């Protein structure tokens, strides 16, 4: 990424080493789905770049809504669709940042969307779906990508100019909130009702004693 200008977009037809959070493999067969990476260079302190994953999720949710889907966002990076078997994952977002002296050098925003896949191997068949399965028709990947970029650009521009508030409001509209959840952290397990995200991108849980816990990292498990 050294020397590349902001806005560089890399799109793959297939991934041989696709991965999600925590190094998990991402099922990436050829000719079916959308796999892309976008280079960003926001002039921000590194501590302020956290919301980018959520803003990308908001943009994807808005895009899918305009295409007739009803997406749900699971903190921090999963996009789900309702199916007869319950909520299934249709997309994931991974933001990887490089910083220097607490300033962002670049962020690579990776997006993977199950677009036209019909079969998922192993346990993925129990948790994943695709746009084509839900819509019962083939979805044009180029049209989806163009719509996503057109939706993300103004969200990103507002983020750089005014902060993440408007993008996070969009994320909250599509988010799975108001349910009990628990998160395992190094300091121990936290349980409560997930009710919002703040401007740092942290998930806010209201614990049983009535306190607010901020979760910056971890795996959310819904109860």
Task: Describe the 3D structure.
The chain is α+β, with helices and mostly antiparallel strands and 223 residues long. The protein has 2 domains: 9-174, Bira Bifunctional Protein, Domain 2 (BirA Bifunctional Protein, domain 2, 2-Layer Sandwich); 179-222, SH3 type barrels. Helices cover 25% and strands 34% of the residues. The chain has helices spanning 52-66, 124-127, 131-135, 141-162, 165-174, and strands at residues 9-12, 34-40, 71-74, 78-83, 86-100, 103-113, 179-185, 188-197, 203-206, 212-215, 220-222. The strands form 2 sheets. Strands 1-2-6-5-4-3 form a 6-stranded antiparallel sheet. The chain has a 5-stranded antiparallel sheet with strand order 10-9-8-7-11, with no helix packed on it. Helix 1 crosses helix 4 and helix 1 (52-66) packs across helix 5. The longest helix has 22 residues, at 141-162. The radius of gyration is 17 Å and the shape is globular. The protein starts with 8 loop residues before the first strand and ends with a strand. The model has no long low-confidence stretch (mean pLDDT 90).
């Amino acid at each position: 990424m050294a020397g590349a200008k902001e806005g560089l977009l890399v799109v793959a037809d297939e991934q041989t080493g696709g991965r999600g959070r925590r190094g998990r493999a991402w099922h990436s067969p050829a000719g079916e789905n959308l796999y892309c990476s976008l280079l960003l260079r926001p002039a921000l302190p590194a501590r302020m770049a956290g919301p980018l994953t959520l803003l990308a999720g908001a943009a994807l949710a808005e895009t899918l809504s305009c295409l007739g889907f009803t997406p749900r966002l699971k903190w921090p990076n999963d996009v789900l669709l309702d199916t007869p078997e319950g909520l299934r994952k249709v997309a994931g977002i991974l933001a990887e940042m490089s910083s220097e002296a607490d300033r962002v050098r670049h962020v690579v925003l990776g997006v993977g969307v199950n677009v036209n896949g019909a079969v998922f191997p192993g346990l993925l068949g129990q948790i994943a779906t695709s746009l084509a399965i839900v819509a019962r028709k083939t979805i044009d990947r180029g049209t989806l990508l163009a719509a996503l970029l057109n939706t993300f650009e103004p969200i990103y521009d507002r983020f750089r100019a005014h902060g993440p508030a408007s993008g996070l409001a969009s994320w909250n509209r599509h988010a799975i909130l108001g349910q009990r959840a628990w998160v395992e952290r190094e300091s121990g397990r936290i349980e409560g009702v997930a009710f919002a995200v703040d401007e740092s991108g942290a998930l806010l849980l209201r614990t049983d004693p009535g306190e607010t816990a901020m979760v910056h990292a971890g795996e959310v498990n819904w109860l």
